[in-house]
């Protein structure tokens, strides 16, 4: 790291949290690095083509090695001297179990907090002090929090202490879910491996795009590929926000918006379905939205290309009919399992052991 970069980081350390949070992301990404490598995983924008390529290769190698008992036993020695805290105080099934399983694959010792009611936050302790406490006992904190920006705040705080540890964002309010976007990208890459990869594909994203952090993070990552087109399909109230549209315009990524699912399906290489995010309602406004027009049913399958794929970050409600599950183009259950492998690869990368895996 150059002297100029070190001075920049020291300047960032001197900022208050409010000042740091308002700083444009591009101006503070190096704050979340150590020795020129990603140290905290907080934003999709941290992922470069080089990092993604390394993570995909590492995930593929872990999958291969773990098929045999001897291989899995070896993988579990790699981080057996390290500890991870799973701090998940927002409801989660897949992300929690996926990260937990990824930790086990690499031999990490795991502790967990699943609710503020089981920590000293119930006694009035601040989330900041809770996280600082965790840092005394863990080498990595993987967190999912209902408060927007809390993962970034944790990393900002811990990177200023003498024993910084990595923070991994497993979902932070409505802002981003970068590891979900990473597993989505990994699923797209695997699915299109024999079709030239992700380049030149049309991705149709459907549903609650206004409040869906998975589509936000995935949209950021798709800029890394050539010729990608995005179609956003949603009710008017749940349209993708201007921040994402401005980002796509800046990077010359073609996109369009529609309220017609059926007209959008024939051109899709991938259909990314999402549920309505009514947990973020202010006054129960979701109940007034006719979401049924944005449900994928068995009758819609005839409109899709034979080699298209259907994805969903899960959990689902009625937005994908169960009858669709048996169609070979439905990839959401495989997508879910892919999360375990790519998150194991990410953990390996953050601990700097990916070469041990790649070179075996």
In brief:
The chain is α/β, with parallel strands linked by helices and 360 residues long. Helix content is 36%, strand content 14%. Helix 3 packs across helix 12 and helix 6 (127-135) packs across helix 7.
Helix content: 25-40%
**In the CATH hierarchy, what is the class of the largest domain?**
Alpha Beta
Note the total helix count: 13
Biggest β-sheet description: 5 strands, parallel
Gyration radius over CA: 20 Å
In N-to-C order, the SSE pattern is HHEEHHEHEHEHEHEHEHEHEEHH
Structural class: alpha/beta
Widest sheet: strand ordering = 9-8-7-10-11
Report on this structure.
Helix content is 36%, strand content 14%. Helix 7 links the parallel strand 5 and strand 6 (166-172). The chain has a 5-stranded parallel sheet with strand order 9-8-7-10-11, with helices on one face. A 4-stranded parallel sheet has the order 4-3-5-6, sandwiched between helices. A two-stranded antiparallel sheet has the order 1-2. The protein folds into 2 domains: 3-177 and 338-358, Rossmann fold (3-Layer(aba) Sandwich), CATH 3.40.50; 178-276 and 286-336, Aspartate/ornithine carbamoyltransferase (Rossmann fold), CATH 3.40.50.1370. It is of the alpha/beta class.
